[in-house]
Design a protein that fits this description.
145 residues; alpha+beta; 5-stranded mixed β-sheet; 48% helix
Length: 145
């Protein structure tokens, strides 16, 4: 079994929305062969809670506006460290960068096929690591002063 055309359509719009809000490391996995509850997962991250919420809000708005899709469930709003949007066909995970590293969902789903996404979404790969290095360099510079 593979992800349906509807799932791919939802993923593409959601991934583009996340990229538009500067999400890091956007990736999608076809989990239809190992899970019966959904076809695909979309993962994205951001370096702070405010941006996590902004990305999630943009994804919800674009999916509703462009495809008439509304999530059946939204979890994690309170702390905005990891927000999950369940659209039945797909599940979107937007995590704070620290949670992304800690929970390492990519490691859990690495055996599932990766789903091709829009170029803008693919261009976000490695941004989380790049941002972490910049922050470390800034902290080191502050310690020197």
């Amino acid at each position: 079994m593979t992800a349906t055309d509807r799932s791919i359509e939802l993923l593409n719009v959601a991934a583009q929305a996340a990229a538009d809000k500067l999400a890091h490391d956007i990736i999608a996995y076809d989990v239809s062969d190992v899970l019966s509850i959904t076809d695909a997962f979309l993962l994205a991250s951001a370096p702070n809670d405010r941006q996590v919420k902004s990305i999630v809000d943009e994804i919800e708005e674009k999916l509703n506006k462009e495809l008439g899709a509304k999530p059946v469930r939204r979890e994690g709003d309170r702390d905005a460290r990891w927000i999950l949007l369940d659209y039945v066909d797909i599940v979107v995970h937007v995590q704070h960068s620290e949670e992304r590293v800690f929970y390492a969902l990519e490691r859990l789903w690495k055996d599932c096929p990766e789903i091709d996404l829009p170029e803008e979404a693919k261009a976000t790969r490695g941004k989380g690591e790049e941002h972490a290095k910049e922050r470390a360099a800034e902290a080191e510079a502050e310690d020197v002063l």
